[in-house]
């Protein structure tokens, strides 16, 4: 009965902790959703809808820039929807959102550590006439494409670097790590008993190797968590520049630097649409810089990535303990 209990309870634990691909049934459904007979019809449907929407908006507005903006928006929306449903990635996003909500109390320390270094050079861009002229001249669709470009570069960088972090973790599996990892999980009791009994003879390193979909699950967990953290920082930078610009950038200065009419709020001459556009542009640029710095600068990495790596280490340790326990149980039954 106890054997069946931990086998039954560990899979929901994996799902609750953003690791659905660690569950064989979830992994099989995701693999099936990637077959061409499933993906090709969806891609064709999205392409037809995106082209139709782009043509319609271009015809209604008379601005050709709406076409690529609409195409990218619908493509991103469709990819996210398919990932959350057919690819069974909803638990990953849900776990990341819960973790982000729980870490909001740490937002102030995060911002106070990151903002000073960012603002040392970003502020000089903010008080630069050329940056104002460029940012203020962008219409909504072009600004959206710029944000997508910055975001795409950041995600591609993460997808290149995060697998390296996963490889470092799954190369260092031992008995002590598995003992720490299984605490508070459904397999804590039987796994601890197994390690006490056979710890010295177990080859846990083989169970630490995370292949295929399970490896991509860990990468996606890191990706979503890092994106959430970067977005929090970007919003903080955006708020700072809106407040800072509202204090120091008079309507006359904004009009002179943008070379045109400033669309300010009623009774708030310093707060304008142009100020918001410049702030959004620089916040996106700051997010891209921070994304790169977290994984390349050791100081940033230690401050902002250590907690995420600790959770990754736990996930790999629980998986190794579960696989070793299952093999031990099957051998005992045999």
TrEMBL record:
<feature type="transmembrane region" description="Helical">
    <location>
        <begin position="66"/>
        <end position="87"/>
    </location>
</feature>
<feature type="transmembrane region" description="Helical">
    <location>
        <begin position="218"/>
        <end position="248"/>
    </location>
</feature>
<keyword id="KW-1133">Transmembrane helix</keyword>
<protein>
    <recommendedName>
        <fullName>Integral membrane protein</fullName>
    </recommendedName>
</protein>
<feature type="transmembrane region" description="Helical">
    <location>
        <begin position="40"/>
        <end position="60"/>
    </location>
</feature>
<feature type="transmembrane region" description="Helical">
    <location>
        <begin position="107"/>
        <end position="129"/>
    </location>
</feature>
<feature type="transmembrane region" description="Helical">
    <location>
        <begin position="141"/>
        <end position="160"/>
    </location>
</feature>
<keyword id="KW-0472">Membrane</keyword>
<feature type="transmembrane region" description="Helical">
    <location>
        <begin position="275"/>
        <end position="295"/>
    </location>
</feature>
<keyword id="KW-0812">Transmembrane</keyword>
């Amino acid at each position: 009965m106890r054997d069946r209990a931990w086998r039954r309870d560990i899979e929901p634990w994996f799902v609750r902790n953003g690791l659905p691909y660690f569950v064989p049934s979830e992994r099989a459904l995701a693999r099936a959703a990637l077959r061409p007979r499933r993906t090709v019809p969806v891609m064709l449907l999205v392409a037809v809808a995106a082209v139709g929407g782009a043509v319609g908006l271009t015809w209604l507005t008379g601005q050709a820039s709406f076409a690529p903006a609409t195409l990218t928006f619908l493509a991103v929306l469709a990819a996210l929807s398919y990932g959350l449903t057919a690819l069974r990635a909803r638990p990953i996003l849900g776990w990341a959102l819960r973790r982000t909500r729980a870490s909001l109390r740490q937002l102030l320390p995060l911002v106070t550590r990151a903002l000073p270094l960012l603002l040392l050079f970003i502020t000089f861009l903010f008080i630069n006439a050329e940056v104002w002229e460029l940012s203020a001249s962008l219409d909504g669709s072009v600004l959206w494409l710029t944000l997508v470009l910055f975001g795409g570069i950041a995600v591609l960088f993460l997808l290149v670097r995060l697998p390296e972090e996963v490889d470092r973790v799954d190369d260092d599996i031992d008995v002590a790590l598995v003992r720490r990892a299984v605490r508070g999980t459904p397999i804590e009791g039987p796994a601890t008993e197994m390690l006490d009994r056979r710890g010295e003879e177990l080859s846990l390193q083989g169970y630490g190797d995370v292949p295929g979909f399970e490896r991509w699950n860990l990468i996606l967990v890191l990706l979503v968590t890092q994106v959430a953290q970067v977005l929090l920082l970007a919003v903080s930078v955006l708020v700072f520049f809106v407040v800072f610009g509202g204090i120091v950038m008079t309507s006359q200065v904004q009009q002179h630097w943008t070379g045109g009419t400033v669309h300010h709020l009623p009774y708030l001459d310093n707060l304008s649409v142009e100020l918001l556009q410049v702030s959004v542009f620089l916040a996106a640029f700051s997010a891209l810089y921070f994304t790169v710095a977290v994984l390349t600068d050791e100081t940033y990495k230690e401050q902002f990535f250590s907690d995420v790596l600790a959770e990754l280490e736990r996930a790999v340790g629980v998986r190794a303990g579960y696989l070793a326990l299952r093999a031990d149980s099957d051998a005992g039954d045999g």
